[in-house]
Amino acid sequence: MSAITVENVWVEYGDQIVLENLNLEVASGAFLAIVGPSGCGKSTFLRMVLGQERPTRGRMLIDGEPLPDEPGPDRGVVFQRYSVFPHLTVLGNVLLAYELGRSRVFGRLFGAARREARDKAEALIARVGLSAHRDKHPSALSGGMQQRLAIAQALAKNPKVLLLDEPFGALDPGTRAQMHALIKPLWAKLGMTVVMVTHDLKEAFSLGTRVIAFDKVRHDPQAPGRYGARVTYDLDLTREGPVPVLGAVKPDIGAPWSVRVVAAG
Ligand SMILES: Nc1ncnc2c1ncn2[C@@H]1O[C@H](COP(=O)(O)OP(=O)(O)OP(=O)(O)O)[C@@H](O)[C@H]1O
Questions:
Q1: Is the CB of 106 within 6 Å of ligand 1?
Q2: How large is the ipTM?
Q3: Fewest CB within 10 angstroms: 9, 98, 155, 158, which?
Q4: Is the pTM of this model over 0.90?
C-alpha cells in the first residue's frame, strides 16, 4: 500500500479549467471514494494517479516520491467496461497480467517462472470466484464475471494502489452487491490503497473509509471553463461521531452529508 500526496494540482485543457488547486493527503491503506457531478474531473484525477495524465500545475507524489511518468505495476486499474482482452481466456488474461508485471521487457515468462505465474493466476481466479470459467473468453462471461476478471487482472500485478473507475456502474443491483462483498475483503486482505470513483453515494459510503466530493464552487455563465472543481466535502468514515465536514463550502447539498456515521466495517 502507498500514500498519495496531491499538492496544489491544477488540470487545464486549453482554456477549460477542470481541477483547481487540489490538495489531498491519502493515507496508505485508505479506501478513498470520490463522488461528484458528471464532468467535474473525477476520472481525470484517477488518470493522474495512474500516470496517464500530468497535472498542468502542482505535483503528485506516491510515498513521498514524484509519480513516475507512465503507468507502472505498482498501480492497477479497473474501468467500468473493456478492461480485459477479448481474445484471451480468463486464465490467459490473468496470466498475461502476471507476465507483464514481472517481465516488462519480453512480456513473457518461461520455465519455472511461468509455472509459478500460472499457479498464482489460478489462485487469483479462484479468489474472485471464476475457477469454473477459467477457459472461457470474456464474451462468454456475464458483466459481473467480466468485472471479476478485470479485478483479478488488476490484482495480478500486486499493485500498491488500486484505482477503480465506476467499476460496478454497469451492473444490476444484485451483482453490484456481490461485487461489494468481493472487493472489501480483498482490499482488507491485500492491504492496498484504493481510490474509487463512483456515482453511487451508497456505494461510496459502504465501501469507503473516506469519501470526498469534487464540485465547482464558482461559476461564470459567460465562461463555463473558467473555474474548475475543488474538494468540497471530505469525510473520514473511520471516526466515530458526527461526520467532520472539512472545507465544506456548499452547505445546501443535502441529507447524506449530515448523517451520523460510525466506523466503516
Ligand atoms: N483529454 C482531454 N481533453 C480535453 N478535455 C478533456 C480531456 N479529458 C477530460 N476532459 C474534460 O474534462 C472534464 C472532466 O472530465 P472527467 O471525465 O474527468 O469527468 P468525470 O467527473 O469523470 O465525469 P463522469 O462522471 O461523467 O464520468 C470534462 O469536461 C471533459 O470533457
A1: no
A2: 0.96
A3: 158
A4: no
Burial class from Cβ neighbours inside 10 Å (0-12, 13-18, 19+) for residue 151 reads buried
Domains delineated in the chain: 1-40+52-70+213-265 (no CATH), 75-159 (3.40.50.300)
Alpha-carbon distance 208 to 60, whole Å?
A: 21
Ligand 1 atom 6, closest CA = 13
Rounded CA separation 265/259 (Å): 17
Q: What is the pLDDT of residues 90-124, one digit of tens each?
A: 999 999 988 876 665 556 666 777 788 899 999 99
C-alpha 102 – ligand 1 centre gap (Å) = 32
Instruction: Report the residue among 44, 79, 197, 219 best suited for mutation to probe ligand 1: largest number of ligand atoms under 8 A from its CB.
Output: 44
**E-state strands within the chain:** 4-13, 16-26, 31-35, 57-62, 65-66, 75-78, 161-165, 193-197, 210-216, 229-236
- Which residue's entry shows cell 483547481? 20
